[in-house]
Every structure is written in C-alpha cells, then in structure tokens.
Amino acid sequence: MAARPRLLFLAQCLPYPPHSGVASRTFNILKQLQVEYDVDLVAFSRVCHQPDRVARQAAWDALRSAATFVVEPTPIPDTAPRKIWDHLRSVFSGRAYTYYEYESDAFADRLHAVLRTRTPDLVHLDSVDLHRWLPDLGQVPITCTHHNIESELLRRRAQHPNQVLLRHYLLLQAARVERLEREVCSRLALNVMVSEVDAEKLRALAPGVATMVVPNGTDTDYFEPNGTASVAGRVAFVGGTYSYPNRDAVEFLLREIWPRVRAADATVSLRLIGRGAPADRVRYDAEPGVTTLDYVPDIRPPLSEARCCIVPIRIGGGTRLKILDAWAMGRAVVSTSIGCEGLDAADGENILIRDTPDALAGAVLQVLRDPQLRARLERNGRRIATEMYNWDVVGRRIRAAYGALLDRPARRRAAG
Predict the structure, then answer these.
(1) Among 87, 105, 357, 360, which one is most buried in terms of CB atoms within 10 A?
(2) 142-146/333-335 β-pairing
(3) Do 326 and 345 form a contact (C-beta atoms < 8 A)?
(4) 6-217+391-407 placed in CATH 3.40.80.10
C-alpha cells in the first residue's frame, strides 16, 4: 500500500477544546484532513484558550488522537512588556504587528525539528498571521486558510474606537496587513476562503490569486435538536468577550438593543454564553434580565433553552460558526448583515436580518411571539446546516482541493 501523503499543519492557536470560532474550524479541518493525510501539527497556544500549563497539557493530549503527530505547543508571550515591544518594532520596521507577535525561538526549534525528520508533501498554514515562517518551509505547496480578510477586519474595528490614536494605529496596521495579503497570497499554491464574499475581496486585492471557498461547518450530529423545551422569552448570545468583535456585539446588545426588548416585554431573559473578564461579567449581570454563564464545556443545554439566538456582530469577516451551531440545533436566529455575511442566509426563511437597534429588538420580539415564524426559521436552519455545512461535507471539499495540488506536475512555492 502506498504511503499516505504527509501534511504539515501550522496553527496560530491550539485548537482544543473546539469551543470558539477559529478553534472549532481549525480542529474540525484538522480531523477532516487526517482522513487522507498523516497530519503533523505545530501550533501556538493562547491564554484565552488554554489559561495555564494544565489546560495546555490537556489540549495537547487530546489532539494526539486527532493528528498523526502533535508537537509540544508554544505559548504566545502574553506579557505587557512583550506586547509593547512587538508593537514598537512594528511601528518602526514597517512590518505588520503579527510578524513579531508570532516570533518565538521555541517555535522555530520545534518547526525545524519536524521539517528535518518528517518532510511534508504539503503545508497548511492556518492563518496569514503566521507569514513570518514561510521562508522556513522550503520547496513544497503551501496553502493558507483565511478565517477573515484581516485587513478589512482591522478597518471595521477602526470605525468604532473613540480614541483617535487607536483609530489611526488600527488603520496603519490595516494598510500593512493589506500589503502583506497582496504580496504573500499571490505566491501561495492556494488560499482557502470561508466564503465567496471573502474570496472576491482577496481577488480584488491580489488579482490572479488562487482561491477556493471551503466554508465553515458545524457538527450536525453533536448539535442537533434534542427535544428539550425552550424557555418562554429566552434569548441567547454565544461568544467569549475576549474576542473584540464579540465584546463589541455584547456592548451594542446591552446598550442599544436589550433595553428596547425589555421595554416591550419585561419577562424576557438573556443568557450570555462564553468566557469573559470577571469585571465585565459583574457589569453584564447587573443589567435587567441578563445572566452571564461564562465558559461552559457544553453549550447545547443553554442553546436548547433559547427561543432566539441573537448575533449583533458589527465587526467581522469570514462566517459565524455561532450561527451554524444554532441552525444545527434548530434554534431561530436574528443577526446583523455583517453577522451572517457569507452564509446562505435567507431573511424570513432561515434567519431574520436587521441592522438598527430598533429593527433588531423588533425581530427578537417577533421571534419570541410568533410560534409559526419561529418554527419556520428553526426547521429551515436545521436543514441548511445538515445539507451544506456539515463538517463531513466541508471536509470532502478541502481534501479534494489539496489532492489536486499534489497531482500538479509543477508545484508553486511561497517564499520570503
């Protein structure tokens, strides 16, 4: 029997537990690639995912069953002096901040050891943020997953801060990341996009760039309607507020949308599901009808109780896994246009799409009060999750694309 091709998977986070957007996609794509490849995982770890050594060890142990070989994860330095130093170097060098954020002698040693002993046939880069490591990878086809168009994400974020200096700095970084996307992505064998919307944006930035859409997915066997009766008036938001887009969404929800909902119906309740700072949780819990659940290892029980899942995202790109998971659970969803961007979302059929605080509040109340509308949204959401966004369906697409790269007589190289 011929040996399976070897794939080197470089990840900007240690994708376990797979309970946040990026970690969920990374973990499931890793599993899907392991079906046909011997996958070697070399990953950083983040404090927001694995807060201590014990959590990092547990994640490392768990991932050994999902990949052929998993290198000891490298923690991203999380000290204030290191972050300040990285930003200063970025400002004066002209490079994007992420070039310095992912600088690590320990990671370099681990990567080079794998390259010496386990020569890959293909490299999967799980974010353009890891671009500093491209020169180390040699003559091998390299693909890159774009969870967002990062330059656009920075520009969207710059629209909201009140601080003038922060806004200007974000725009500075956006320009540098856009230059990086234009220069690097055209040299990659394939850029894997999570939506056609993002693919079009990257092609506009770098004409002729090789792209393919491999959407985000959901585990429709894990997330499925379980017969649990929903709670009257219950609304849920899923997402850790250590992520700036999620934090902005929660602040927008509590400041602009939730008071309007409560003014119309004082019996409604909101559950905020996801890890956040203790001070923020205290502040959120003080709002009428609001309860923070912080991190929960299994979000299905609180999702099952919700009659409406709200996604008031104003900053972002890619596609929202929180919508896919809610659809798979058969939950009705209300979202902003940005929140459901790139998904096969049909207003009034599988989702309600609104953008102003009044309209979002009205849509939430409509879902809570109209059982026929709610049932239609639930039924159609579950169907589209199963037919289009099941991870097995997604996995077949990316494996076929990677197989085609290995069949090419001439391989493209991403360098420097």
Answers:
(1) 360
(2) unpaired
(3) no
(4) no
Strands of the sheet with 234-238, listed across from one edge: 290-294, 269-273, 234-238, 308-311, 333-335, 352-353
Q: How confident is the model at residue 160, as a pLDDT?
A: 75
User: What pairing do the DSSP bridges indicate for beta strands 142-146 and 122-125?
Assistant: parallel
**Which of 314, 331, 196, 174 is CA-nearest to residue 253?**
314
Give which of 338, 330, 384 is closest to 360, Cα–Cα.
Answer: 338
First-to-last C-alpha distance (Å) of the chain:
37
The predicted structure's pLDDT at residue 224: 92
At residue 302's C-alpha, the angle toward residues 297 and 304, to 5°, is: 120
Q: Is the pTM value of this prediction over 0.70?
A: yes
Q: What is the pLDDT of residue 22?
A: 85
Angle CA(240)–CA(241)–CA(247) in degrees, nearest 5? 135
158-211 pLDDT, tens digit each: 887 778 899 999 999 999 999 999 999 999 999 999 999 999 999 999 999 999
Q: What is the pLDDT of residue 332?
A: 98
Taking the chain (416 residues) in consecutive chunks of 10 residues, what is each chunk's mean pLDDT? Answer: 85 89 91 97 91 93 95 92 94 95 96 96 97 95 95 87 87 96 95 94 95 94 90 95 89 97 97 92 96 91 96 78 94 96 94 98 98 97 96 95 81 42
CB atoms closer than 10 angstroms to residue 252: 19
259 prior amide bond cis, ω within 30: no
Please, what's the b/e burial string for 107-144 (b: 16 or more CB within 10 A of its CB; e: otherwise)? beebbeebbeeeebbbbbbbbbbbbbbbeebeebbbbb
Question: Which helix (DSSP H) or strand (DSSP E) does residue 180 occupy?
Answer: helix 164-185
Per-residue confidence (pLDDT) for residue 409, from 0 to 100: 52
User: What value, to the nearest 5°, has the Cα angle with vertex 142 and ends 138 and 144?
Assistant: 135
Q: Give the dihedral sign, CA 296/268/357/200.
A: positive
Neighbours of 415 (CB within 10 A): 11
Class of domain 234-388: alpha beta
Phi, psi angle pair for 333, to nearest 5°:
-125, 135
